[in-house]
Amino acid sequence: MTATVHDVAILSDFRYPGGTSASIAAEIRAQARAGLTTVLVHVRSPHLKQNRPFHPLLTELIKDGSAYLAAEGEEVTARLLVVRQPRIFTEDLKTVPPIRAGRAVMVLNQAPGDAGDPARYYDFAAVRQRVQGYFGAGIEWAPISPQVRAEVLRADPGATLTGADWHEIIDGSEWWTDRPGPVSAVPVIGRHGRPDPVKWPRTVPELLQAYPDTPGMRVRILGGGELAVEKLGRTPANWEIIEFGTREPAEFLRGIDFFVYFHDPDLIEAFGRTIMEAMAAGVPVVIGEHFRPLFGDAALYTTPEGVVPLVRALYADPGRYRAVALRAREFVEARFGYPSHVARLADRGVRPGAPSPPALAPPPPPPPGAVLLVSDNGVGLGHLSRLMAIGRRLPGDTPVVVATQSHGALVAHKEGFLTEYIPSRSVLGLARSGWAELLRSRLEYLIELHRPAVVAVDSVPHDGIVAAARAHRGITWVWVRRPMWRRDTGAEWIERRDAFDHVLEPGEFAAAADEGPTVEDRAGVRLVGPITYLDPDELAEPEDAREALGIEPGRPAALLQLGAGNINDIVSPVARIARHLRDAGFQLVLAESAIATEPMPPVEGAQLVKLYPMSRYLRGFDLVVSASGYNSFHELIAFGIPSVFLPNRETALDDQVSRARFAAAAGAALIIEDPDGPDLDRVLARAVRADVREALSRRCAEVAPLNGAADAAGWLAAFIDRPEDAR
User: Fold this and answer.
1) N or C: which end of the chain has fewer CB within 10 A?
2) Preceding amide of 613 cis, omega within 30
3) CA 115, CA 33: separation in Å to the nearest integer?
4) 458: part of which helix (H) or strand (E)?
5) Does position 569 have pLDDT exceeding 60, yes or no?
6) pLDDT band, very low/low/confident/very high, at 596 (cuts 50, 70, 90)
């Protein structure tokens, strides 16, 4: 008798009451819809002491035939084995289920520990030894999120993990409720989840900031509310507490206006499934900044203190409220929809009717010759944009991988790059030594995975980067080092130049005003022109740009782009600038950085846009008021856009002031030296004049340098075929 070959076998303890079982249920449904068969293999987890029943979602799926439950000891054959919940393997299994599978994946849906103890929940090395002993050394280890990935690497820097996370999935159509705005007479803040003390803010003040005891506002809690009440010592009059499991989450979400989730700072939240569910249901989500690598700009980020002002502002603006809800829905469907799961199964050979692979084996390594582009965690997108500008001009057959510490990882992904996210030291809150080790191990893993011939680093040479470079001397290491550093800064970084084989320096229009330490370190440095992401012929024509941005024809338009808002307060001068330009008859567009950590407040008479690259639409504007960071500055000069520079004086290395002053002295731009004084009105009074703007454009056309990105790409590409020239 021929044994049944299932498409997917899922091994776990199916009694888990929370996200683990909900995740398994979602994957079973996705597999059934795709015509794939699923067999469930139940093993008991040693840390679930109570004799619980199976999760009701899984029970229903077994009843309706979406999944087949294997009997204890039954031999199971499957094309792919998916193992969930590493805590099952904190002790030896009493009986190892007899499973034969072509490939296997261990989904790490929980971090080994938390901020206080990296092995609080399980010893990763011990779990790995058991799992490989049971299912073979070729099993893939797939973190469920960047947070889990970082914690696993903190516990075991040498761990080999999959390049892409095995993220949660959801069917948005089952959750979505179309709402034109808030559904309640007063703002209703809500949250749902299993009861656990670490799922709540640690201190009483933070708890009441996130879930306020405030007149004119209500709080509704499904699951765990009794723990918050115990912490407070009372039940606030405006709180409604619903026992966990007594109401379906989808029904609960239909009755709240905002989903707010803050927890104990020691907790490493593996994913945040309840956050994803709220987004899919059309409820705006307010969460902490550490979730940004997962949810990008689909959520709203703040601190507990910022919850009430943000909720009140969004509640009062139904149009923005709906826009936030629609953006989140689109994000969830694109990133976490069922098709994403079917695609990752197909990558492992699991398709309807596909033959079973003959044996469990890791995928073959990629061919050597890739270029790995490593960017720092800049407050803006400068580091990342320069590398992407080079990457998109490398020869078409060159494998290009972007590894970035920036929240702009989503931007790189959308621009078509294979993107690896490395959580930064500030996101993880690690000490310098711990961060250096994690960064080194992560880079070495990416080198092993992608086998690059060239690693180009647009970053200061952190300890982890230097260690990885010195350990892999068979690769060409290039430091892409932007000039124009502030005077008397960065000498310690210059001293680390010998860790690299070469230094590539993007050009600087204001080079004559450069007084930073890179000026004295040019021997052997490869110089190219200023690097911009786009070339002039890639910009939209003025009429097309205006139509795309909704700018009315026949009236002048101005763009305000003052940076990411992550260094200092960029909002203060915006209102004065906007008022002056409105009074002069200009339409206003306010550019919000794709990685801004705080949403920009509304500015009267200005529409807010969040696009990348914003430079594509610059010809639709008659005037731009901008910070003078490297990328924006050189784009505006190169494309001949009349500009007023408002330099950021709080940058660590970048000398924006000298850059802007040089452009003004060259007649290519204007500068506001003191945005808090009369200088702002005086400069803008000149900028709004048509003759002044025409003169600025003409001068830019006379002095604008050519884009150096193609030269940089060609120079890097030479080292792919000629590694002997690396030194």
Assistant:
1) N
2) yes
3) 39
4) strand 452-458
5) no
6) low
What is the average pLDDT across 450-462? 94
* Tens of pLDDT, residues 47-105: 876 677 888 889 889 988 899 998 888 889 999 999 999 999 999 988 889 999 999 99
Q: Do domains 172-333 and 536-703 have the same CATH topology?
A: yes
Fold (topology level) of 172-333: Rossmann fold (3.40.50)
Fold of 5-155: Rossmann fold (3.40.50)
Specify whether the CB–CB gap between 328 and 279 falls below 8 A. yes
Q: Which residues, other chains included, contact 504 with Cβ-Cβ below 8 Å and sequence gap of 6+?
A: 456, 478, 479, 480, 481, 525, 526, 528, 712, 715, 716
CATH code at 536-703: 3.40.50.2000
Kindly list the domain boundaries of the chain, sorted by start residue.
5-155, 172-333, 370-531+708-726, 536-703
pLDDT at 143: 93
Task: State CA 439 to chain mean position distance.
Answer: 17
Q: Is the pLDDT of residue 540 over 60?
A: yes
Q: How far is CA 4 from CA 37, 76, 121, 356, in A?
A: 10, 8, 36, 11
Q: Give the side-chain half-sphere CA count within 13 A for 13.
A: 20
Domain 370-531+708-726 is in which class?
alpha beta
- Residue closest to 288 by CA, chosen among 145, 187, 427: 427
Close Cβ partners of 398 (under 8 Å, ≥ 6 residues apart):
369, 370, 371, 717, 720
Backbone angles phi, psi at 473, to 5 degrees: -80, -10
Q: Please give the structure tokens belonging to residue 496.
A: 């680390």
Token couple for 50:
């109570």
So what's the pLDDT on residue 641? Answer: 98
Phi and psi, residue 12, nearest 5°:
-170, 180
Per-residue b/e over 75-86, b at no fewer than 16 CB within 10 Å? ebbbbbbbbbbb
How far is the C-alpha of 175 from the C-alpha of 282, rounded, in Å?
Answer: 8
d(CA 144, CA 136): 21
Mean pLDDT of the chain: 89
Portion of the chain with pLDDT greater than 70, in percent = 93
Strands 140-143 and 99-108: parallel
Over pLDDT 90: what percentage of the chain? 60
Q: Side chain identity at 145, as an amino acid letter?
A: S
Distances (CA, A) of 537 to 267, 391, 615, 699: 49, 18, 12, 19
Q: What's the CA gap between 382 and 651, in Å, rounded? A: 13
pLDDT at 363: 44
Gap between the Cα atoms of 207 and 214, Å rounded: 13
566 pLDDT higher than 80: no
CB 531 within 8 A of CB 707: yes
- Report CA-CA distances (Å) from 606 to 53, 63, 191, 568: 56, 56, 33, 21
pTM comes to 0.57
382/494 Cα distance (integer angstroms)? 20
pLDDT in tens, 206-221: 999 999 998 899 999 9
Please give the structure tokens belonging to residue 263.
Answer: 């927890």
Q: What is the pLDDT of residue 157?
A: 85
357 within 8 A of 79, measured Cβ to Cβ = yes
